[in-house]
Amino acid sequence: MLALNSVTRNYGKKVAVNALDLQIPAGELFAFLGHNGAGKTTSIKMMVGLLQPTKGQIEVCGYDVVRESREACLRTGYVPDEPYLYDKLTGREFLQFVSEIYGMAPGEAVARIEMQIDQFGLGDFVDQMAESYSHGMKQRLVFASALLHRPRVLIVDEPMVGLDPRSMRLVKDILREETRQGATVFMSTHTLAVAEEIADRIGVIANGQLLFLGTVGELRAQMSSNESLEQLFLALTAEEAADGID
Prior knowledge:
This protein has helices at 40-47, 69-74, 91-101, 106-119, 135-147, 165-180, 192-198, 216-223, 229-236, and strands at residues 2-11, 14-24, 29-33, 55-60, 63-64, 76-79, 153-157, 184-188, 201-206, 209-214. The protein is α/β, with parallel strands linked by helices and 246 residues long.
């Protein structure tokens, strides 16, 4: 469902992502881990078409993100690390706007908007202007908008930032439910306990290069340790300087 084939991204002489190979199948929740500057956000921006690879190819559901950007976009949901909204739109108006971007039929859009309002508990504020929202309220609305068109690939960058414990539990349950329904979820996070709890596989990146790819159990076996993912991650990346461009 999501494939990165020898993907490289340069900023001048700086190599932010170096020959990254990943294959994330349908029904998998994949957690992408790394220090600030490791290359995570650059990788995600290439996956969603905000940046083009210097070399290599990215495919979403078989569509090239650069050459077939519209088809790839229609199958992708994206939750960035900062929830950007239009301050002078209400939450409901924003969801309606997103439905039109994806070309959803009016009847389907209304039904899906109501479903997302209910699923994410937006009812108390969805008809207020976004300028009045807290960070957590914005994050929940952005999640709702990303799932509105039933994407086959969901890409989320730091999904738990600004969420209270109840909202975090909701998001974790929804991410797992999306994979149960056959979607691919790619999650970049610093919250290692969440990755350990819900991810099927993890990838650890440092200085633009993949250090590890597999399950947490496989990482424990590789490092001959039964410690938490946090401790394993710190040991694995101990000698890697996080001085790159994220």
